[in-house]
Specification:
Blueprint: H1 9-23, H2 30-36, H3 41-44, H4 51-71, H5 81-98, H6 100-107, E1 108-109, E2 112-113, H7 120-131, H8 143-170, H9 177-193, H10 197-216
Antiparallel strand pairs: 1-2
Length: about 220
């Protein structure tokens, strides 16, 4: 039988997910994986260097598919940062739910998130997303401090996503309704804690006092 030609990344992802769900382990080799799916081994390396790279790509594709769905919404660009993040979460977890068996296989060993390497590309994509949704920040007027502020927001947001994924993995409620509640309450709490308006007022007041003191002297 002639080997399949013009295979795509989507083909490889689909075949890989199907294999691990049916066998509960990675293929033994790229050679055996290619033989089972009737394509040339060399074609695999046009897209991926290893099965680990496919795993990382899968979670990045979940992110990309989420962004494609959000891009179809006319209302989404008008949302503030809080609602953009909420909408992202609900959409992203719908995609995870549609692929739950694979996500459980990829991330869960003995009840813990062990294979964080699988999330490497997702982490990069998500941090860029968070940095670009318009979260209000303090104008520190110093590049080094502003970079620290940006990194803190990105890293804490990533940790929040990991915690939410862990909650979802453990959620046994119908339609994962407890995860929906967790998402809404936790994101609202995060934005309430990040509300910089009171801090801005304190900083402005401090600047005023300092200015008046200098003028008085």
């Amino acid at each position: 039988m002639a080997r399949k030609k013009n295979i795509s990344k989507d083909n490889l992802i689909s075949w890989y997910m199907e294999f691990v769900l049916e066998n509960n382990h990675d293929p033994k080799s790229v050679f055996s994986f290619a033989k089972e799916n009737n394509f040339e081994e060399g074609d695999f390396y046009k897209f991926y260097g290893s099965f680990e790279a496919i795993e990382q790509s899968i979670f990045s594709e979940f992110f990309n598919n989420t962004m494609k769905l959000l891009a179809k919404s006319e209302e989404y660009p008008t949302y503030d940062a809080r609602n953009k993040l909420l909408t992202f979460y609900f959409t992203f977890f719908e995609i995870l739910t549609a692929n739950r068996s694979y996500v459980v296989y990829a991330l869960r060993e003995n009840g813990d998130l062990k294979k964080l390497k699988s999330l490497k590309h997702l982490r990069q994509d998500y941090k860029i997303f968070v940095n670009n949704i318009g979260i209000e920040k303090i104008d520190l007027q110093q590049e080094k401090l502003e970079k620290i502020q940006d990194k803190t927001i990105q890293e804490s947001s990533w940790m929040h996503l990991l915690i939410t994924i862990k909650f979802w993995l453990d959620d046994a409620s119908p339609s994962f309704e407890k995860t929906d509640i967790f998402i809404e309450k936790s994101i609202n709490a995060r934005f309430d804690l990040m509300d910089i308006k009171p801090l801005k007022s304190i900083i402005d007041f401090g600047k005023f006092i300092l200015k008046e003191k200098v003028n008085f002297n």
